[in-house]
């Protein structure tokens, strides 16, 4: 079943048009989640690896939790809280600027916010937040509930492997 929410994909005719169609048009929730994760995670990990190669002494984010607390904090709590904040800010931005500008501002804002904790982290995290933001903007045209849930799910998947490493792996 197709939902004709708009004739144009989010980001059409903008620098965001290179992003996958499944992110920009609210048609299939599970495809959007899978495409979102496949678009966000590998590229952000490549940015992290490149950053570690170029600046090996760069400060990394520190998480003072482990075990199930780390899983809860990084896979449940953080995606829920950050998506609620991101979506609320995007809804305000969309009243004043075009969707592409709101999406880019959101991603840059999240990159800056995470850079305040660890500068390299912000350089890595802006990309996933670009993906989360475009998903939010696309899906809010169809359903506000899905606009929050779909990026939240992608965010949780984005954090899953790092959360497992924080919780149970990579001990110093």
UniProtKB/TrEMBL annotation:
Keyword vocabulary terms for this entry: Membrane, Transmembrane, Transmembrane helix
Lineage of source species: Bacteria, Pseudomonadati, Pseudomonadota, Alphaproteobacteria, Sphingomonadales
Organism from which the protein derives: Sphingomonas anseongensis
Transmembrane segments: 32-55, 67-85, 92-112, 118-139, 146-170
Keyword Transmembrane: yes
Stated name of the protein: CPBP family intramembrane metalloprotease
